[in-house]
């Protein structure tokens, strides 16, 4: 079967989209004077790379799913990249349906964000169990940091072992580090004189990007699936660098009595509703300020200070976001769990006596209780 999207015609080396010089407001625009440049890069990718600008041109999600569906009709190795900091938010639901019988290597990126000293075997076992619960069958689980290059030699060995001369499809949600990983493959294994565009903004890769591995096979970077159940898809793009950490997270532990509240800017809220005095550890970006208050005063604090004392976001940007919605969780005595907010982080319950807690997050953002990661 032909590879998906093997259509002829010039394409952007950064995002994979077909280039055009007619419509400046459409995807793939390249000024006519730049059409002969090599490598050919669209204006969107150029401005992302050199000016860190977000684009007002957004990709079509239906097209993303169409391209991903095409992988199931190939004979290839599938590498699914997830973000350890946002594991449940970045795992592609129903991936087996998309990839068919092709083997899947699960690559867990951004392990550099975890606090130092964490046992990697514990993380790997946790990932394997969570993936199994989500119905994902994998031939191997690898822990890597595309940013630091950690685990990359093992990844290269694993790809060579499992691909057996076949193409390698890189799949994942937006902003899990797919393009960073592909660029390392380009620099180490390909003569291609180009780089895939890397950006902190969702939806950077727009179409399939083929990077030759040898005369017969390629690494193929696919567009990221956009999940609006992640907080990172709901906030204005200017706040992404504040919400997503770029260095190891420093756990912040709070000793709380029942009827106390923690605010994470104006983005989320944690209420310790009922239970004995105990500690809760927050794993969130150090750029976020955590405010503690009494539960009885929490609503008034938000009404009076959201977007000012409690930020991000600002009051103006807060008006464009969904309202906070309450999720109640009952923690059993002795249960080791995280209260997880997709795209923001999680709160680890450390007590052994049980508790009732409420987690408030913007409506539609995935908020769950899960087995403790750390």
UniProtKB/TrEMBL annotation:
Coiled-coil regions listed: none
Residues covered by the CP-type G domain: 65-228
Stored InterPro entries: G_CP_dom (IPR030378), GTP-bd (IPR006073), GTP-bd_ribosome_bgen_YqeH (IPR019988), Mito_lipid_metab_GTPase (IPR050896), NOA1/YqeH-like_C (IPR048422), P-loop_NTPase (IPR027417)
SUPFAM superfamilies listed in its UniProt record: P-loop containing nucleoside triphosphate hydrolases
GO terms of molecular function: GTP binding
Cross-referenced PANTHER family: GENETIC INTERACTOR OF PROHIBITINS 3, MITOCHONDRIAL
NCBIfam families for this protein: GTPase_YqeH
Protein name, entry field: Ribosome biogenesis GTPase YqeH
Source organism per UniProt: Paenibacillus antri
